[in-house]
Design goal:
Blueprint lengths: L1 E10 L5 E10 L2 E7 L1 H46 L1
Antiparallel strand pairs: 1-2, 2-3
Length: 83
């Protein structure tokens, strides 16, 4: 089965809660499931975990780029101060 769509929305009536639907397709047909509020927490946790992991990877890459860019400048500054 292949994920076709995932739809999450905030329902405001009769109470404020997240709901959603998830739809899968296969060669023999498709199925759409209603997601209840208790299904949302694991989805949000998975997304949050992935965001943190991606953010850390981006931060590490940016830090490495800043260091590699600044390193020659710092070495040149040190050489200028010696001479």
């Amino acid at each position: 089965m292949e994920l076709q769509s995932l739809h999450i929305y905030l329902s405001t009536y009769p109470i404020r809660e997240y709901k959603g639907t998830i739809k899968y397709n296969s060669a023999t047909g498709s199925v759409e499931l209603n997601l209840l509020p208790e299904h949302m927490q694991p989805l949000f946790e998975a997304v949050a975990e992935a965001l943190v992991k991606s953010s850390k990877a981006v931060a590490a890459q940016l830090t490495a780029e800043v260091i590699s860019t600044a390193q020659p400048l710092l070495v040149q500054k040190d050489l200028d101060e010696v001479t």
